[in-house]
Design a protein that fits this description.
197 residues; mainly alpha; 10 helices; KstR2_TetR_C; transcription regulation; HTH_TetR; DNA-binding
Length: 197
């Protein structure tokens, strides 16, 4: 049975993902070899193939792990016992912060998603759609309660917010003038202003 750590370091799957993320972000998915990933992670190819069936599986996991985190957090906000405005604002801000905290992952995804097989691409799109649908349900809940304007369809409101989120990797810089929380607050406030009755 393969060991999950090398005796004192981080678990091998985490090391592989960290190395792949860094290399995919720096060089691009198509210009990064499996050999470079295993060397950067300090493991063998056998270890990589024990945890991930291929380099493509690593690419899929780079994005899926962030989406799983975001989905878990969105579910918690959506299920909270709080007014709909607070739940939506918290969810809208959280997706911005978690995207910024995983900016390399977001950049890799949008640059390299076309490298995924049709089947893996479909899986990732399905996970993303589930997230967007839960987010849209919050907007619809507020619209049905009369708290949010229903002048703009909920789908368009979702696209508006996530267009901003998906674009973060092209302009946000950690050494820039705004913290992740400040950007998140501004974008969440813009979303709520767009929904005012």
């Amino acid at each position: 049975m393969a060991r999950t750590t090398d005796g004192g370091g981080a678990p091998v799957p985490q090391r592989l993902l960290a190395a792949a993320t860094r290399l995919f972000a720096e060089r691009g998915y198509d210009r990064t070899s499996v050999q470079e990933i295993v060397e950067a992670a300090g493991v063998t190819k056998g270890a990589l193939y024990h945890y991930f069936g291929s380099k493509e599986d690593l690419l899929q996991e780079v994005y899926s792990r962030v989406l799983r985190l975001q989905q878990e957090r969105l579910d918690a906000y959506a299920d909270a016992d709080a007014p709909i405005e607070d739940r939506l604002r918290d969810a809208a801000a959280d997706v911005v912060v978690t995207t910024i905290e995983n900016l390399d992952d977001a950049a890799i995804f949008f640059r390299s998603m076309h490298h995924l097989s049709p089947e893996k691409n479909k899986q990732v799109r399905s996970e993303r759609r589930r997230y967007h649908e839960r987010f849209r349900a919050l907007i619809e809940e507020g619209q049905q309660a009369g708290v949010f304007s229903s002048a703009t369809p909920a789908d368009l409101v979702v696209d508006y917010h996530f267009g901003s989120v998906h674009h973060l990797s092209t302009w946000y810089r950690p050494d820039g003038p705004l913290t992740p929380e400040q950007v998140a607050g501004h974008l969440a406030d813009l979303l709520l202003r767009a929904l005012r009755p």
